[in-house]
């Protein structure tokens, strides 16, 4: 029996539902490379500021819009390490004014490339205000362009797998080591080195997620022209991007951008109007290095590993893509929550220690604090100025029996795996670093084990039980969406 959906629009506790048949979709790629007058400009992704003075590569934001006459949703993935909520909210507000689509129906997420201009303060990297304004306008422009290209469409999804490119980067230690706060009780270490850190560590402190979910969209017209594809993979980033003609660092969309190019060629023979997007899954503790193995005989050339990973993930995505069954009558829904979560701050002794460290002679290298203890002392004092609680925006999007959750954090992989288990939908995945930035999101157990991702800083400041509250909120949101 075929069910014909009547229009149903409900707004209740942040929930918007629509079950009207007749999908439409549009997509866009917009260049977000800094303008000439914005150089030199700092990148993000390092504890020290690194400036780019000359660039020959381009970076982009990519938008996919899907829905029907009453409910349209959009996903914009930005070649950026971190996109703060101020930029995401402003861009969505501007796009909403241009399109009439509620800002709550839009997702703006960073891919987490470490080779893009800083968009928000991170350790010693500070953004250019001019670039922040420019980036905001470009994101809004991309959403508006995707809206202008809406056409009758159909969509479907499938899940591939690539276990070859993901490794948990946190390892249990066999001997004590001192963290930046003078504490030697951490039980876990990030990136310990090859051969298990020379025997200093024993085993990974968490799992991996090998899934490569794929949402594919094509025209519902007779030609079935491919329109766009949204994939997801839980790998932090790759790094070591191509250099410019002078052998210096330049901007790069990392393996996320390389994946987009490869999939465009696979699906649409490189057609300019086809948009493939790779979003970052729950990868706060995941990288592309197998520390249980001996080190490679030689380091890959700049850009080589990015291509290798992108090709591997694209092959897995395409294998899933070829199995997809398409539908043009899917229910579309959006749910949102905003949680007020606590901020971890130093006590009096911690503040005193930070003042003492920064008050002693400190060697600067290219204007950066060089000692790790001094860097974290500075972070300690900066966090003192944060409010006691911060708003954390969560979002769930339903497209048929597919659910896409979004978090504004560098989310640990076991959280994403837990959300998949709790989901009442056949297929679910999570896009991290979406609609703002609230640092790492470890579980309480991972907090107890310690390690870089738990060290108090602008990169990790939410309360220890934040993940428990976030998982519970998503459980409620998914249940609401599934019941409508």
Q: Could you characterize what this model shows?
A:
The chain has 484 residues and is α+β, with helices and mostly antiparallel strands. The protein folds into 2 domains: 400 residues, no CATH class; 36 residues, no CATH class. It is built from 10 helices and 25 strands. The strands form 7 sheets. Strands 8-7-6-3-9-14-15-16 form an 8-stranded mixed beta sheet. A 6-stranded mixed beta sheet has the order 1-2-18-21-22-24, covered by helices on one side. Helix 4 crosses helix 5 and helix 8 packs parallel to helix 10. It is globular.
Strand content: 25-35%
How many extended strands? Answer: 25
Computed CA radius of gyration, to the nearest angstrom: 22 Å
Strand order of the largest sheet: 8-7-6-3-9-14-15-16
Alpha-carbon distance between the two ends: 19 Å
Distinct helical segment count: 10
What is the 3D form?
globular
What is the number of independent domains? 2
The helix/strand class is: alpha+beta
Low-confidence stretches: 1-20
Estimate the mean pLDDT confidence: 93
Q: What percent of the residues sit in helical stretches (DSSP H or I)?
A: 25-40%
Main sheet summary: 8 strands, mixed
